[in-house]
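Please fill in the sequence for the structure shown.

STRUCTURE ENCODING:
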């Protein structure tokens, strides 16, 4: 299914040459988990439609929900609840400290610094840090840990203001935020303004190639506006005098890119070869994305059939992990209270709330052992290894896990 859209322009190059490649219908906001009192109110739903820009190759959703609606004060995501993410961050920091010879006179800035999960490792090594994050709850946590944090949206103006007070960064981290900001160009031009001439920005986000190849449609939600290929990134950065100097593919979050971006156009062999590979595979053309939609429909139908069949055979089913992708999955597939008894999550801020759209209660993970559902669907399948290890007792007691992506599988 492909159709042209004339009303919206590309988030990167402003072209109106956008073609829809996947339409997931209307879904509730993935991180807006209603409380018991809010269950009586109607939940806002917004269209979730993915399009490809024929001019700069950027894959993007068409709807922009205002950030004050998306990222409200009670935004419940705290990065430090994931062991995998913490270990990933620590390794990244130690490598950069050594490579860039960072010390007390250096400045490392993280955009969307959350609760200081990454900057804390720089602080332990005596490197000066500054976090910037608009979410009050996690930012206050960071400040309590002694990590200076500005509670603000990072914009071109905010970067210029910091730069005018002499705050320029040796290293800027931006993990899983570039794809989430509504003003993509303003954000990148802010990075250019805040970065020292020899500085490096280290930017991570999911890779659209992994999304398409592994059917990761549940990583699509309203907060996640852009789905980058290296081709699309290269074009975005160049517009602001920034250049891809090195790039790595990472396995985290179902397949991500880590770009090293600076002010000189000196691409590594890795950058040159990944751009070439994308041209060969066709990531810069709409045809690459057109078969994706029918594969997604099949995964959804197969998962619904599996759960319905298990339930019909008398099994009880729960789910693990009230992550944003879990919300997309249950709402697009249509997994309701009739199929799932409850969802568990380690994040105490989510416990007691309900899954968006389907009103399934979120409980403490100890409920898996207490209630022993026959099957548990893993919603954040990107952390499946970590979850399987934590829940070994549930498995030893006869509980089985279901992984939904790239195709439904019982473990
Ligand atoms: Zn474009």
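FILLED IN BY: designer on duty
SEQUENCE:
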């Amino acid at each position: 299914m492909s159709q042209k859209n004339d009303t919206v322009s590309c988030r990167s190059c402003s072209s109106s040459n956008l073609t829809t490649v996947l339409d997931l219908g209307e879904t509730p906001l993935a991180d807006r988990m209603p409380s018991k009192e809010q269950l009586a109110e109607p939940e806002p739903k917004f269209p979730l439609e993915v399009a490809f820009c024929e001019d700069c190759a950027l894959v993007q959703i068409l709807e922009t929900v205002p950030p004050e609606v998306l990222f409200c004060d009670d935004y419940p995501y705290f990065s430090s609840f994931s062991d995998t993410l913490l270990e990933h961050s620590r390794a990244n920091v130690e490598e950069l400290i050594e490579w860039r010879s960072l010390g007390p006179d250096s400045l490392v800035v993280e955009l969307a610094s959350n609760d200081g999960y990454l900057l804390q490792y720089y602080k332990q090594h005596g490197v000066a840090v500054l976090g910037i994050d608009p979410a009050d709850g996690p930012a206050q946590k960071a400040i309590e840990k002694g990590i200076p944090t500005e509670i603000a949206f990072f914009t071109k103006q905010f970067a210029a203001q910091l730069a005018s007070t002499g705050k320029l960064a040796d290293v800027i981290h931006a993990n899983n935020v570039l794809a989430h900001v509504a003003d993509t160009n303003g954000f990148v031009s802010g990075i250019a303004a805040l970065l020292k001439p020899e500085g490096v920005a280290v930017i991570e986000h999911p890779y659209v190639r992994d999304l398409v190849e592994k059917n990761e449609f549940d990583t699509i939600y309203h907060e996640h506006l852009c789905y980058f290929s290296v081709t699309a990134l290269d074009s975005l950065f160049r517009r602001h005098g920034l250049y891809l100097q090195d790039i790595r593919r990472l396995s985290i979050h179902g397949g991500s890119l880590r770009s090293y971006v600076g002010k000189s156009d000196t691409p590594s062999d890795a950058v040159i070869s990944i751009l070439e590979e994308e041209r060969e595979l066709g990531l810069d053309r709409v045809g690459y994305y057109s078969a994706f939609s029918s594969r997604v429909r099949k995964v959804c139908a197969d998962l619904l059939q599996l759960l319905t069949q298990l339930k019909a055979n008398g099994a009880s089913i729960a789910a693990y992990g009230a992550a944003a992708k879990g919300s997309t999955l249950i709402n697009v597939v249509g997994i309701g209270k009739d199929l799932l008894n409850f969802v568990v999550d380690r994040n105490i801020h989510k416990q007691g709330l309900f899954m968006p759209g389907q009103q399934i209660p979120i409980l403490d993970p100890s409920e898996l052992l207490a209630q022993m559902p026959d099957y548990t669907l893993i919603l954040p399948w990107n952390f499946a290894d970590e979850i399987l290890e934590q829940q070994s007792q549930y498995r030893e007691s006869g509980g089985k896990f279901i992984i939904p992506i790239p195709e439904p599988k019982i473990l």
